[in-house]
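Hey, can you fold this?
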Amino acid sequence: MSKGLFRKKSIEQLVAATRGEKTLRRDLGAFDLTMLGIGAIIGTGIFVLTGTGAVTAGPGLVISFVIAGLACLFAALAYAEFASTVPVSGSVYTFTYATMGELLAFIIGWDLILEYMLAASAVSAGWSGYFVSFLNGLGIHIPLELTAAPGALKDQSTYFNLPAFVILMGITLLLYFGIRESKRINNIMVVVKIIVILLFIIVAVKYVKPAHWTPFLPFGFSGVFGAAALVFFAFIGFDAVSSAAEETKNPARDLPRGIIFSLVICTLLYVIVSGIMTGIVPFMDFEGISHPVSLVLQVAGQNWVAGIVDIGAILGMTTVMLVMLYGQTRIMFAMSRDGLVPKVLSKVHPKYKTPYINTLFFGTLSALMGGLIPLDELASLVNIGTLSAFILISVAVIVMRKTQPNLPRAFRCPGVPYIPILAIISCAVLILNLNSQTFIRFIIWLVIGLVVYFLYSRKNSLLNHDHEK
C-alpha cells in the first residue's frame, strides 16, 4: 500500500502529458509572466494590509515586508528551478508528484485550493468595498443589503455581496475565453495600478515626518514577526506564475525571470509605500482603518489623489482575483489529467484551448463564496496553505538534486541545499506566528482531503491504472 501512496510520475511522463489532446495554448512571454506576478501580488496587501500591519509592528513594518519578501524569494528560487525544468501546469502539485509521490502531491493540490480559490473570494469582498465607495462618490448607490455577505456587518442586515459575485463571474468568463485575452487585460490593469502607486509615492513622500518613525520597533521583534506573518498574504500569488508553465512560449528562459522579477519589484514597492505611510501618519492611527492609503492622503491634504487611488485599488484587486482564479483552474486541470479529480475538469475547449468546465465550476463557486460567506476569519487559512506549499517545493528541490543530479536544468536554484533550507525555516517561523484556530481549520481541511483521496483519487489515478495493466 505504501508503495502505491508514494508512486511518482517521471519527468518524461509529465512532459509527455503536454503533447496529448488535453493541451493548452502557449502564448506567454517574460513580460506577460512578470505582469501576471505583479497582478497577483499587488492588491489587498498595499491598499489594506499596510494599515493593519502598521498597528502590529509600527514603523518596523518595513522590516516585516522584507522578512516576508525574503521567505518568498527563497521559495521563488526553488519554484524557478522546477518551473523551467518541468514546464507543465500544476505548479508545486506537479513538482511534488515527480519527487515525493502521489499522496503528498494530492495533499498539496488540495492545500492550494485554500490559497487560490479562497483568496479570490476573500479579495472580492475587499474589492466590493472599494467599488461601492467609488460608486458612492459618483452618486450611485447600491442597496446596503446587497453590498456584504450575511452577517458581515454587525449593525446592519445584509443578504448578498452582489459586487463581489459579479466581478468574480466576469473574471470567470474572461478566463473561459482564453489566456491571450486575459493577459492583455491583466497587463493593462497592472500598468495602470503601478502608475497609481508611483503617483502616491511622488505626491506623499514630501509630507513624511521622520519623527513618526520613532520608536521604530514599538512592539519589538515579536511585533515585526507577527506583522510579517500577517502581511505574507500580500505576497501570495507569485507562485501562480509557475502554474502558467504549460502556456509559456519559452519556459526555460521566461519563467525564472517572471517569478523573480515580479517578486523583487513588488517587495520594493511594499517597503517604500509602508515607509512613507508610517512617516506621515502615526502608526496607532491606522487602528480600524480599512482604507489606509486614503487616510494618508487626507492627512497630507491631497484629497484629489484619493479618487485615483480608489481606481488603483479596484484594478489592483481585480488582477489579484484574475491570477488567483487562473492558478486554481490550472492546478485542478493538472490533477484531473492525472485522474486524481474527475476527468471532466481537464476537458479543453476546442476553440479557446482553456479548461472551460473547470473554469466555470470553480469561478462560480468562488463567486458564490464571495457573495455569501464573510471570509475574514478564514483569510489566515490562505497563508498557512501557501506557506506549506513553499516548504514542500523547497524540500522537492533538495530531493530532486539528490535523486536526479544529471537532469538538464535551464535554471538552477543557487546555494542548494542552503537556500531551500532557509526557505523552509523562514516559512516555518511564519507559520508558528499564526493563531491556533488557523491550525485547527487547516487540519480539518486536510482530513477532508485525505477522505477524498482514499475514497476516489487513489483508485482513479492514472498511475494506478498503469500499475494494474
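Oh, and this one too while you're at it.
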Amino acid sequence: MKGKNQTSVTEFILLGFSDLPKLQSLLFVMFLVMYILTLLGNISIIMIIRMDPHLHTPMYYFLTNLAFVDLCYSSTITPKALVDFKVEENTISLFECATQLFVFVNMAAAECLLLTVMAYDRYVAICNPLHYPVVMTRRVCTQLVLGVYMVIIIYSLIQTVNIFSVNFCGSNEIDHFYCDAHPLLKLSCSDTSFNEIVLSIFAGFYCFLAVIPIIMSYILIISAILRIRSSEGRHKAFSTCASHFFTVILFFGTLIFIYVIPKSQFSLYINRLLSVIYTMVIPMVNPMIYSLRNKDVKRALQRILEKKWFSYAKKFFL
C-alpha cells in the first residue's frame, strides 16, 4: 500500500541530455543526420534486394529483415529524442513509455536472433555448400524468421511486465533519453531487487542462447576455411562472413555491457554513450557494412541504376 505522501506516477519526464546544455544543438544535428542516414541506408538495402532477382537468396532475405528491424527500433527511439531537444517539457505518458520499451526490446531482441540465424546461414553455405539449396529452402527461411518474431514477442512481454509491475511514485524523472529498463526501475518506490535479477537473468540467458550458436558456427566456419587450399578461396570465404562478424561484435558487445554487466560498473555518461551506439549508430552503419563490403549489392545497385537510366533515356530520345 502506498503511503499518504506518495502519488502514483501517470507520466514521466525524459531528462535526456539536459545536463549538457551547451551541446544541445550539436547533439540534435548529430542525431538528425544519423537518423536520416539510417532511413536512407536501410530503405535502400530493402529496395535493392527486392528489385534485383539475383539477390533473392536466403542470405539477402535475412538481411532484408535485419534492415527492417533496424528501421523499426531506431524509429522507436530517435524521433522522440529529436523532439525532446526542441521542447521544454520532455514528458511521456506511462502507456507510451511502456509501449516504447516493449517495441524497443522487441526489435533489439529480433536483431539478436536474426544475427544468429544469419550465422547459421553462413555456416551451411561455407561448410555444406552442396546441401545449401536443400537445407536453406524458402520454407525453412520463412519458418526461421517467423520463429524469431514469435520468440521476441514472448521475451519482450516478459521484460515489459517485469519492469512495469513495480510501483512508480514520487520522482518521475527518467535519467535517460528514452524509456529504458534500469532508469525506470530506479524510479520505483518498491523493492526492485527481484526485478533487477529477472532483468539480468533473462537478458543474459537470451544473449547466451543467441551468442553460443554464433560462436559455434564461426568455429566450424573458420575450421572449414582453413582447410581451403587456395588463398583466393580462403579470402572469398572470409569476405562473405566479415560484415556479419563485425556487426555481431559491435551489437552484442554494447548490449552485454548495458544489460548484463552490473550498472555500478559504469557511469551514467558511459551508459548513455553505449545506448547511443546501439540505438542510433548500429542501425546507421549496418547498411554501410553490408553494402560497401558486398560486391553483390554494389553490382545489383549498378544494374538497377543502368536499367533506370536506360529507361529514362529511351523515353527521352524516343
